[in-house]
Specification:
heterodimer; A: mainly alpha; MetI-like fold; 13 helices; globular; B: mainly alpha; two-stranded antiparallel sheet; 73% helix
Chain lengths: 279, 301
């Protein structure tokens, strides 16, 4: 039933509109401020439009002077590596847990799922020393391995659910044809599970791209920073060297890739949330 | 093919698909967790030779440490503020975007989720500018209504700076939980509402007697999720917005204190013990909430 009272309807609509502004305005503001110089920050109102000529050079400035090109590349490598590794490892285990009955299977599933309840802050210190022992502190491979491991519980949870929804007859037919277990998985089940895999892929990708907590502990070499870490360091430097325009440009460089992913994969992201919550 | 070779092949397949993931998970998740529990019982400066077993002394020291108490208090403050703020707004938005049949629902839904795909680091830096005393949005906005230019140091109040961390975290959190609620509401059979309409029940009564009881499960999951993610992750926003607990440790949370103790002051044993505290507080709160909210479900039915 639609709301009948026009006054109530208008009020609700206004609240929604107000919140939209609260969400969108800071983002638009970021873009506008990325095109200003310091003088405009101090003399004009924060919502003033940037003066012409627009300072697009702020972007090339953070890109080269603040090493955002390096951070960007690191973010791409770390996110791609960890997301793919996490997804492959999740898919293999999830398929077996969903389709094969064996001793300890249920226990294993419970172990993965219940680990979602453990705050990873607990593992922070030992992870640092583990990576230190493996000579992987300040390496991209170190971050890839740690992030991939963080992705596993959700990936396994979601994909077990997904594999359980696929009809059993497909595999039975494959077995009749003499296809091996591996062949059934790689040639039949893996392609069929594409929608589930994409949901896991997008969710993990966003998490890994945005990760800061572990990254800041596991890297202290600017050459290995990912974007969130580099951005946080840049903000801290603003105490000594005030360059607001470039900082806003850095904000945009960090968030635009995730915004693009969101615009393209909106539905898969929503699926990931709702699947993860039906516990 | 014989039965035994078939069996063997099946077992080999299972093991080859289970073991790599498990070994990986064991090394990078299970082992560090166990290590953390163990190291919390040591006095440890980071070098392996400087590690002495001290039993529960780290935890005894915590009882005497006023910053620990303040951190736990701040964490609970953020949890409570986020649960109230996020759940009220997320539920309101979810109901408005589904039950009210307004124009532009899809648009609003898409917009409201945006903060959830942005890194907390970006959100922290962005809100630092909103709060910035000289060039920030908030002071400039307030100055429109005053004669004198407003120059409040929003992140430097001696006592209540922790309040300022609530708006960014609520702003950032709503979309996710709104999507959850929407999915739950959409799943409620339309016939329930049709019957209520025939009985002449208004929007509020429908919400109170149909929507709320039927999305209670999602509300429960959401609240518990907010608790876990806040206790675990409040570190990031504190690190970025109040420089890891400033002013004078008044915005310290457990995560930021762990980071400071371990990675800035090299008390790794004590840091590990704070990690254990986060785990215990998180599990205890979750269990308690599950109990409380289960009782309420029964009452409502």
């Amino acid at each position: 039933m639609a709301i009948k009272n026009p006054v109530a309807k208008t009020i609700v609509w206004l609240i929604l509109l107000l919140w939209s502004v609260a969400v969108l305005y800071p983002l638009i503001w970021t873009l506008l401020d990325a095109l200003k110089n310091n003088e405009q920050f101090f003399l004009n109102m924060p919502w003033a439009l940037p003066k012409l000529p627009l300072l697009w050079s702020n972007f090339s400035y953070v890109w080269s002077k603040y090493n955002f090109s390096t951070y960007f590349l690191n973010s791409i490598v770390v996110t791609t590596g960890s997301t793919l590794l996490g997804m492959i490892l999740s898919a293999m285990t999830a398929y077996v847990l969903a389709r094969y009955a064996f001793k300890g299977g249920k226990l294993l599933f419970t172990l993965y799922i219940s680990s979602m309840m453990i705050p990873f802050a607990l593992a922070l210190i030992p992870l640092f020393f583990l990576l230190n022992d493996l000579h992987m502190v300040n390496t991209r491979i170190g971050l890839i391995l740690v992030y991939a491991s963080l992705n596993l519980p959700f990936g396994i949870f979601l994909l077990v659910g997904f594999y359980k929804t696929l009809p059993k007859e497909i595999e039975e037919a494959a077995v009749m044809d003499g296809t091996s277990h591996y062949g059934t998985f790689f040639r039949i089940m893996l392609p069929l599970s594409q929608p589930g895999l994409i949901t896991v892929l997008i969710t993990s990708m966003l998490n890994n791209w945005n990760e800061y907590f572990l990254g800041v502990v596991l890297t202290n070499d600017p050459g290995k920073y990912t974007l969130p870490i580099g951005l946080a360091v840049m903000q801290a430097e603003m105490q000594y060297r005030v360059e607001w325009g470039p900082l806003f440009a850095g904000l945009l460089v960090t968030m635009v890739p995730t915004l693009i992913v969101y615009i393209v994969f909106q539905r898969q992201i929503a699926n990931g949330i709702t699947a993860g919550a039906v516990k | 093919m014989t039965t035994s070779s078939k069996r063997w092949k099946r077992s080999l397949f299972i093991v080859s698909f289970i073991l790599p993931t498990f070994l990986f998970f064991g090394v990078f998740t299970i082992y560090p967790v166990i290590q953390a529990l163990q190291k919390s019982l040591y006095d440890w400066s980071g070098m392996s030779e400087n590690s002495t077993f001290i039993g529960l002394d780290n935890f005894k020291e915590m009882l005497q440490d006023p910053i620990i108490w303040r951190s736990v208090g701040n964490d609970y403050f953020l949890v409570a503020g986020k649960v109230i703020g996020i759940m009220c707004l997320a539920t309101l938005f979810a109901v408005a975007l589904t039950r009210f049949k307004l124009r532009g629902s899809g648009f609003f839904r898409a917009i409201f989720f945006i903060p959830n795909v942005i890194s907390v680091v970006v959100i922290g830096v962005l809100w630092n500018f909103i709060y910035n005393p000289q060039i920030g949005f908030l002071n400039a906005f307030l100055s429109l209504f005053t004669e004198k230019k407003v120059d409040i140091t929003w992140l430097g109040f001696p006592k209540h700076t922790i309040w300022m961390l609530l708006p960014p975290t609520i702003w950032a959190g709503i979309g996710f939980y709104m999507i959850l609620m929407i999915a739950a509401i959409v799943n409620i059979p339309a016939s329930y509402y049709e019957a209520a309409n025939i009985d002449g029940a208004g929007q509020w009564e429908q919400f109170r007697h149909i929507t709320l009881p039927l999305i209670w499960e999602q509300i429960k999951v959401s609240i518990i999720n907010i608790v876990i993610t806040t206790l675990n992750g409040s570190f990031v926003i504190v690190q970025l917005m109040t420089n890891g607990g400033q002013p004078d440790n008044t915005t310290q949370v457990m995560g930021s204190y762990l980071y400071r103790m371990a990675f800035q002051q090299y008390h790794f044993g004590y840091g590990a013990a704070i990690g254990v505290l986060i785990l215990v507080v998180s599990l205890a709160t979750t269990l308690l909430l599950q109990r409380i909210m289960r009782q309420e479900t029964i009452e409502m039915q």
